[in-house]
Design goal:
Strands 1-2 form a two-stranded antiparallel ribbon. The protein is mainly alpha-helical. The longest helix has 15 residues.
Length: 176
């Protein structure tokens, strides 16, 4: 979490994508589930998700089968079809899986028209403290000196003990 706050959150704030985790989860949880009847009423029965191009009826069938089998390939909250239907939202319809991923990636606007997904927009991230800046500078200095603190630890490769003749022997006849 601290690494996220130090490295990722400021980067998202700079790019304008600054939805925090709690706001993203609330937004996803508030997305309505549309039924086939509601899609018919909206005139969208034969439409496709504009992100994945899957027909809405196929998405609803996938949701129904997954719930009936009690073994969905995706989390239940990502199954089905939803509409950005709050008064400040645009009303575009997407499959829940794609719009959830869009929101979790930090986007705070509709992928089609860029209207805000959150009323009044999302407030800026809180400022980073001097202590956090010092910790980040220390982490970056350690990374620059090669000390990753085990974060990026990889086994060393012994290149000297491996010769090209070994490669030729190991792979001879492989592609012939």
């Amino acid at each position: 979490r601290k690494l996220y706050m130090l490295l990722i959150a400021p980067a998202l704030a700079v790019t304008g994508r600054n939805a925090n985790f709690r706001q993203m989860q609330e937004l996803i949880n508030r997305l309505p589930r549309l039924s086939e009847e509601e899609l018919n009423q909206l005139g969208q029965k034969d439409s496709l998700c504009s992100i994945c191009f899957t027909p809405f009826l196929a998405i609803l069938a996938e949701e129904e089968i997954a719930v009936a089998m009690d073994s969905p390939a995706h989390p239940v909250e990502e199954l089905g079809v939803t509409k950005l239907g709050q008064t400040w939202q645009c009303g575009h319809i997407f499959c829940r899986k794609d719009i959830s991923k869009w929101i979790q990636d930090g986007h705070d606007s509709c992928p089609m028209c860029r209207r805000p997904l959150v009323e009044g927009g999302i407030p800026e991230s809180p400022p980073v403290s001097e202590t956090e800046i010092a910790e980040l500078e220390n982490l970056l200095a350690n990374l620059a000196s090669g000390d990753t603190g085990g974060i990026l630890a990889m086994p060393a490769l012994n290149v000297d003990s491996h010769t090209s003749s070994d490669d030729q022997r190991d792979f001879s006849g492989m592609y012939s």
